[in-house]
Amino acid sequence: MSLREEERYVLVTLQLEKVTKMFAELEVLLQNSLWSLAANRLYYALFHAVCALLITDKHEVGTHRGAVHKFSLFYVKTGVFTIADGKLYSQLQQLREDGDYNCSIDIDQNDVENLIIPTRQLIEKIKDYISEKSTK
Fold this sequence. Notes:
Elements: H1 5-31, H2 35-56, H3 64-76, H4 83-101, H5 109-134
């Protein structure tokens, strides 16, 4: 991705603003017990954070599976993030796909609620990484 630094900064900022919007939507969905949609928003919050991460480090952002793969390749395998972080991202992607595309799977409260805190923590780690990179 050949972006000027100010363009990269704007894209990263927009991606992180999306994260905030996804969590605001998540709260409404949780209050209304809309678990499948909540799983979708939780996944997308992390997806946008990962996109911000990839853009920060000048990696191309492509497909959803590509983002998971690049997160694993550039950040988990190099020790920047943990194996558990990579598994969480993959798990959220699968949960979102199941909820969106598989009519025989019903996402329930436990599926979603157990992932909220770890997802928030991973997003904070990503934001910290981005912040550290931007101050250098």
